[in-house]
Specification:
Elements lengths: L14 H8 L7 H8 L4 H4 L12 E2 L10 H17 L3 H20 L7 E4 L2 H12 L6 E6 L4 H12 L3 E6 L3 E3 L2 E3 L2 H11 L3 E5 L11 H12 L3 E5 L20 E5 L11 E5 L52 H16 L1 H21 L17 E4 L3 H10 L2 E2 L1 E3 L2 E4 L7 H15 L1
Parallel strand pairs: 1-12, 3-4, 3-7, 7-8, 8-9
Antiparallel strand pairs: 2-10, 5-6, 9-10, 11-14, 13-14
Helix pairs in contact: 1-10, 4-5, 4-10, 5-10, 8-9, 11-13
This protein binds pyridoxal-5'-phosphate (PLP).
Pyridoxal-5'-phosphate binds next to helix 6 and helix 7.
Length: about 425
């Protein structure tokens, strides 16, 4: 029987987190979050007093580096304790944590098989594993990618192109809302039709604008699939923000990449590559998709130490594992994902949309006009303030105790469940003053 993929996997969530989230009630409110969830974050909520604010800085860069739970430190310490106590027997516990990491990411993605999720230390490493599975000796890979991809992805693709291993066709955004450039479905399907590429690389939510591709991503991926183009979706800004979007929600996506350090509060280094199950389980057959990014954990029967002349791969997604990988990053990412799943990404999404609408209203009331998308659900978990010198404005805000960041012509404000209305009002006041 198919499991309800929207139901939280309670067996993967620790009692302390379940007790807090079970007490929240139907609707998320600041009051309930303050009472039940904020105590799980005492360390980040009690940071040093900012000299100009007389209170800790107002952290609105949650879209950039998410705030960790208190128990994240205990989890990482627990991983080290195992090492001190058990020495080489610690591997068993570390492997369990790695499997739990895969299961939690799978739950966030709405994917039934946890082995479809392969731990990576960066999203870029996931991209390279895919490129290195597709490389061909007879010609460069043909790739369509959007100009909206994150710097790491953009840079890796350009390096492959520079070495002559790929030809990249870049898609510019032709659409826009109130001056914010947006990708249209036709921009991307048009490029796929024109170039008939091996691979399409596209974000599910764009890092600089926050534009979210929902139904359009399904349609684009289906279009690409029919054109025999594989699709890699960068979901870094989507996972933990928008409910699951793979497997039965979007069966056309072949690969997805993402990581933990933003919305899912897991710090850097805990990233992953998703591989659609239709590409798994054929690894030892001729013509199967197999990556050069490999190592002994991808071998069939890793611990038998057999050395067949032809590489024989482990079953399923384990065929995409590589060499000995870090373990502490998995521990570091567990609590954040458990919390997201226990609260429920749908509820978090509704709260985030309402909170951002409120924030934009408050700022508007102080004469600061942020980009106000209509409908708001077409954008992710941060809001944009257009400015001719966005990096300088963001630096000036930080000086005054409001922590944001800037990309291109925009300052990004990313409030979350740990921000109060009072903080948004203070941030608006300070922003208005700094912009004068
Ligand atoms: C959309 C997107 N993809 C990827 C990354 C990170 O890439 P990497 O893990 O290769 O550094 C980011 C980081 O901000 C991002 O916003």
């Amino acid at each position: 029987m198919a499991t309800d993929l929207h139901a939280p996997p309670r067996h993967l969530i620790r009692p302390e987190i379940l007790a807090a989230t079970d007490a929240l009630g139907e609707e998320l409110t600041e009051e309930a979050l303050r009472e039940h969830i904020w105590p799980l974050f005492s360390r980040v909520l009690n940071r040093p007093i900012h000299p100009k604010l007389g209170r800790p800085e107002i952290y609105l860069a949650n879209h950039s580096l998410g705030r960790p739970l208190d128990c994240t430190a205990d989890d990482v310490m627990g991983a080290l304790d195992l090492w001190y106590r058990d020495l080489d027997a610690a591997w068993d516990g570390w492997m369990e944590a790695r499997d739990k990491f895969r299961a939690l990411v799978a739950a966030l993605l709405g994917v039934e098989r946890a082995d479809c999720v392969v731990p990576k230390t960066s999203a870029g490493q996931g991209l390279r594993a895919v490129l290195n599975a597709l490389l061909r000796p007879d010609r460069p890979l043909s790739i369509v990618a959007t100009r909206g991809e994150f710097d790491s992805i953009d840079f890796i693709l350009k390096m492959y192109a520079d070495k002559g291993w790929a030809q990249v066709h870049w898609v510019e955004a032709s659409g826009g809302r109130q001056g914010v450039p947006c990708m249209t479905k036709a921009d991307i399907t048009g490029a796929v039709a024109a170039h008939n590429p091996d691979l399409l690389v596209v974000s599910g939510a764009f890092f600089s604008t926050g534009q979210v591709l929902e139904a359009a991503l399904w349609e684009i991926a289906e279009f690409a699939h029919k054109a025999d183009t594989l699709v890699l979706a960068d979901l870094y800004h989507k996972v933990g923000v928008v409910p699951p979007c793979l497997d039965r929600w979007n069966p056309w996506i072949d690969f997805a990449i993402g990581g933990s350090y933003k919305y899912i509060r897991g710090g850097p280094g805990a990233c992953w590559l998703y591989i659609n199950p239709r590409h798994l389980d054929h690894d030892n057959e001729p013509g199967a998709l197999r990556t050069l990014d490999t190592g002994w954990f991808a071998k069939k029967d890793t611990f038998k130490y057999e050395r067949t002349e032809k590489p024989l791969l482990a079953p399923g997604g384990d065929a995409w594992l590589e060499s000995t990988s870090p373990f502490s990053t998995c521990y570091q990412a567990l609590a954040g994902m458990e919390l997201m799943l226990a609260i429920g990404v749908e509820r978090l999404r509704m709260y985030s949309i309402e909170q951002q609408v409120l924030m934009r209203d408050i700022f508007h009331g102080k004469g600061v006009d942020m980009f106000d998308p209509d409908p708001p659900a077409q954008f992710g978990a941060f809001s944009l303030l257009p400015h001719h010198n966005a990096p300088a404005l963001s630096d000036a805000l930080r000086e005054e105790g409001v922590n944001t960041d800037a990309r291109g012509k925009y300052v990004r404000f990313g409030p979350d469940i740990l921000n109060s209305r009072e903080e948004l009002e203070l941030a608006a006041l300070i922003t208005a003053r700094v912009m004068k």
